[in-house]
Every structure is written in structure tokens, then in C-alpha cells.
Amino acid sequence: MLPIKVFLGEEISTELDYADVLLLASMLEILVLAVEILHEESSQIGLEINWSKTKLEVFDDTSTPPSKVSVLDHDVEVVDSFVYLGSCIDVHGGSEPDICRRIKQTRSCMKSLDRNIR
To answer: H/E element holding 37?
Structure first.
């Protein structure tokens, strides 16, 4: 598969040859621009964005982002956290939400195993 180059200001990304692409930014406008560029570049080689699975997360504590934004006439949800490659990515950073999520999953598995042993 040929790598896709996405230019975002001075930054160049060629790591868009995977099914899931993680775009991080501190401003919503930059994320919207990045998704528009991703769509434009990927459509040239026949790839499409799955708009129902696309979500944006803004790492900006100075303002409250809207719950949805419009990107190329598609509504995209703006979230506070999401799971990416098995890890919880939280808008406030840190690892506490991910650790809590993993503990909760482990407890659930242990309870399930306990029920089947008795």
C-alpha cells in the first residue's frame, strides 16, 4: 500500500496507511482541517473515511468544545475520551482513566470466572 502524505502546516504525516488514524491537536479548527486534508488525500487512492466511526477529541482546557462539528457536510462527534489500541485516551491526559477502565474490566472477568468455578 502506498503511504499517504498529509501536510498540516509545517508537519508532514505519512503514517496514514493504517485502518485507524489518530489525529491529535489542541484546537478544534486544526482537527477539522486535518480531517478535511485526510479525506482529500485518501480519496485520491480510493480510501474513504467512515464518518459514523470518526470522532474528534480536543486537548484545550480554555474553552468548552461543541458536542458535534460539521466536517465536509458530515456531523462528527466531539468526545472527552475514547479507546484507541486498547488504551483510554482522555482529554485531561494522564493514565488514571485508563487504569480505572482496566481495573473495571479485570473485576468483571474475575467475577465471571468465579461464577463458573462454583
So the answer is: helix 28-43
